[in-house]
Structure formats: C-alpha cells, structure tokens
Specification:
The complex is a heterodimer of chains A (127) and B (220).
Chain A lengths: L1 E7 L6 E5 L15 H7 L18 E6 L9 H7 L9 E3 L11 E6 L1 H5 L3 E7 L1
Parallel strand pairs in A: 1-5
Antiparallel strand pairs in A: 1-2, 3-4, 3-5
Chain B lengths: L1 E4 L2 E8 L12 E8 L2 E8 L9 E7 L5 H7 L7 E7 L12 E6 L3 H13 L6 E7 L8 H9 L3 E6 L5 H15 L7 E6 L3 H11 L7 E5 L1
Parallel strand pairs in B: 7-8, 7-10, 8-9, 10-11
Antiparallel strand pairs in B: 1-2, 2-5, 3-4, 3-6
Classes of the chains: A alpha+beta (127), B alpha/beta (220).
C-alpha cells in the first residue's frame, strides 16, 4: 500500500492515507491517481478552484518526502507553478502529481495561504 | 441572461450582498455544484470587464456529458449560485507595452475579451491582433463588439473550421503571420482554448524564438 501523510500549515490535525495506486479513488477531480484525486477520495479537503484541470495554483502542495515517487511535471504545470505563492523546489500541483508506486511513502504539506486566498460569494443571475 | 446561439449562453451574476467582485482580466470564478449529493467545483471564466457594472458575466456552451454546464443551463434568473474566487494565472495585469496577439476558439474568447478591452483602454497602445476560430459564424461570439474593436485598430482574423482541423488552421495562420513573415520575436501571445491544440500553439511559438513568459496560455 502507498501512504500519504498530509500536514496542514493551518494547524488542522494531520491525516495519514493508505491506498493502492492501482485502484485508488480515480473518480474525483484531477489526474486519475493524483494527490488531489487521492485526498478528495479520502475526504481530505484541498482547494482546486479550476476543477483539477491544471489551470490555477490553488492545489499547490509542498512535497517534503517522496518527491521522486511522483510522475514528472509537465511544462504546463511548471508554467503555473512559476506563479504559485510560496514556491519551493519540491512544489507540485496536487491535481497533476500522480502516484504509481504501490510502495510510495509521501509527506505533503498544504500551505496556509492556499486557504487564505479563497474568498466566497453568493451571486444571482439577472435578466 | 443572454443566449448567443442554440448551445451557448451567458449568465450575468450580481452578488447577493450588493458588493462588487474585484478581478483581473482573464480570471475565473469557481462555482460549487451539488449534483446527486456530490459537491464539485467547476471554473467559469469572467467574460466581462472589471470596468463593467457590478454584475459579472460568465459564458459557457453545452458539451457532451458536461454536468457543470447542464447545471448552469438549468439556472433561472434569481437563483443563487455559490462560488469562490476570482482565480487564475492567465491574466493581463496591466496594459500591454508590446504588440499582442490574442488567439481563441469558441467560448474561450471569454478571458480574451476583458484583456482586449484593457489593452484598448490604454492611452498609447501597441498593435493588437485577434485570431478567433469557431466551427461556424454563429459560434464566433461578441461579433458586434469585435467589429467595434476592428474599427479601433484591432486586426481581426476569423477562422471558420470544424473541430478536426481547427487547431491545424490556427497553427497555419500563426506560422504564416507571426513566424514566417518577419523575425520580430518581441510579441506577446495570449492563447486560450480546449485540448492539446493549445499546447501545440505554445510549443510552436516558444520553439520559434518567442520568450517563454511572453507566450501566455490556458488550456481547458
């Protein structure tokens, strides 16, 4: 089984998720088998404003351990990461970073500002 | 609410609390959709300009299996939508100083529209071009507005092509107009569309010598 330890900079309690990459959630947003897919499928909230389509940076995570166990980033992901606040050498977009290795052990930090930059609203269509 | 054609609609959204949504041209909002008890978020680009009134416009079209747009098509005037945002890194933060080429297809004109309006509002502005593709003329959106832009000097290049050849046609136009025609590589490009064709355009332009950061793109 692969394992992801999720650390929240917001101070929320850590979560540890064990899963089999061969059949891990798959039915959520982001690339099938991506960190985002696995987290959402295990009821761990992670922002993904663009729906996991590699069109924003709200699912930016910092991979503290197991970085080389992830799929390679694309030029598109790198172009977006350039614009992510708090970029680190082991930053990834969770929607694009896929875990294939059944023995992978990852430690992933969800930055605080990912949450802080969200503003909510309610709007009505008008004629 | 505005129907552009049989399968494309704009919704004009006003905040319930009466506030204004501050955004940068090119950004999107992330709408929460509850479907079959499952909450999903789907992004919709703001097609209006920050200069507009306090309503924002989102524009979308029917796509096979598209649960998000189906949900939006079912909304009526006065319904409430939950959203977060604005988001997105495909933006024009300031009026351009260099020649700009905007490339879009179908509803992907949405982020380009406020960008061009920002560029046109600049006092001294560089040359602007819009290469815009759709399967037929009814899917070239905002035509009256684009005609006005043309009168203000925007070089408008429409391309009518079916889905199978749409990006081949765009690539051929880009090759001819902005790669083969001269050696100027100082232009900025803003490309938005659906599918891998957007990445082909990115690779073409960067491969031809345009600066990586001068080739802006958003692929859906």
């Amino acid at each position: 089984m692969a394992k992801i330890r999720v650390i929240f900079e917001s101070g929320d309690p850590e979560r540890v998720i064990e899963f089999n990459p061969a059949d891990a959630p798959f039915h959520h947003d982001g690339q099938p088998g991506s960190i985002l897919d696995v987290l959402l499928g295990n009821h761990v909230h992670l922002e993904h404003a663009c729906g996991g389509n590699c069109a924003c940076t709200t699912c930016h995570v910092i991979v503290k351990s197991g970085f080389n166990k992830l799929s390679e980033s694309s030029e598109q992901e790198e172009d977006l990461l350039d614009k992510a606040p708090g970029l680190t050498p082991t930053s990834r977009l969770a929607c694009q970073a896929v875990i294939d290795d059944p023995d992978a052990e990852l430690v992933v930090v969800i930055p605080r500002y990912t949450i802080n930059q969200i503003s909510e609203g309610v709007a009505k269509p008008e004629p | 609410m505005r129907d552009h054609n049989a399968d494309t609609r704009s919704l004009f959204l006003r905040l319930v609390d009466g506030g204004r949504i501050s955004f940068t041209p090119g950004q999107f909002i992330s709408v929460s959709l509850t479907l079959d008890g499952d909450t999903r978020v789907r992004p919709y680009t703001i097609a209006s300009s920050p200069y507009d009134t306090d309503a924002i416009e989102i524009c979308f079209n029917q796509v096979p299996g598209g649960v998000g747009v189906r949900y939006l098509f079912e909304r009526k005037v006065g319904d409430e939508l939950q959203f977060t945002g604005p988001f997105g890194a495909f933006t024009m933060d300031r009026a351009p100083e260099r020649e700009c080429v905007f490339i879009a297809e179908g509803t992907a004109i949405a982020p380009i529209r406020p960008m061009i309006r920002r560029a046109l509002d600049a006092g001294t502005r560089p040359a602007l071009s819009l290469l815009y593709a759709a399967p037929d003329s009814s899917h070239l959106l905002y035509r009256e507005e684009i005609e006005r832009w043309s009168k203000e000097g925007v070089d408008f290049v429409p391309v009518l092509a079916g889905a199978a050849e749409l990006y081949d046609r765009l690539i051929a136009e880009v090759q001819r107009r902005w790669i083969d025609a001269d050696s100027d590589r100082t232009r900025h490009f803003y490309v938005c569309g659906v599918g891998k064709g957007v990445l082909r355009l990115r690779d073409l332009l960067r491969g031809a010598g345009y600066e990586r950061r001068a080739v802006h793109y958003e692929q859906w």
